[in-house]
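Listing S7. Sequence submitted for prediction.
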Amino acid sequence: MVKIKWLILLSALTLLIACSKENEIQTLTAPSPEQKLVTNEQGLTFSILEDQYEEGMPLFHTKVKNDSKSIYEYGEYYQIEVLKNDEWYTLTHSDSVFYENPHFTNLGNLIAPGKEIQQSFSVETLGVTLVPGQFRLVKIFLTPIAPYYTITLAVPFTVTSKHRAPE
């Protein structure tokens, strides 16, 4: 009888540990090198339609406006960072996403001065499931002509639980 109780206890603990690991989100071990990112810089403004999503694999609708006098290059790739211990950490994903979608880069499209573009980005593309917490969507822009430089913009958002406790 004692063996059965220990077996049940061990099974319950294993189940609890497995469930708790499910809610962990995988990140790089070091914090993001760019902790302070803004939504607009040098005439580029980056925004998302909503700033709150339910856990899972949300679809983001993004908008970029170019009020500068420069052309910028961008691609379909988005980076996601999570706020842990008051620092931003980059979410990891499999490199296979780049093989499955060769256009998933930071290059290939141009946004001209005075123009606005819209994109849709699904977290499912990265094979990542978002859990409740504070995140930011990061987008990189490059100048295609000299002097070459990059602009990195980020927009924060919150992920909430699908199963909220009654208020």
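Caption to Listing S7: primary sequence and predicted structure tokens for the chain studied. The chain has one domain: 25-160. Residues 25-160 form a domain with the Immunoglobulin-like fold (CATH 2.60.40.10).
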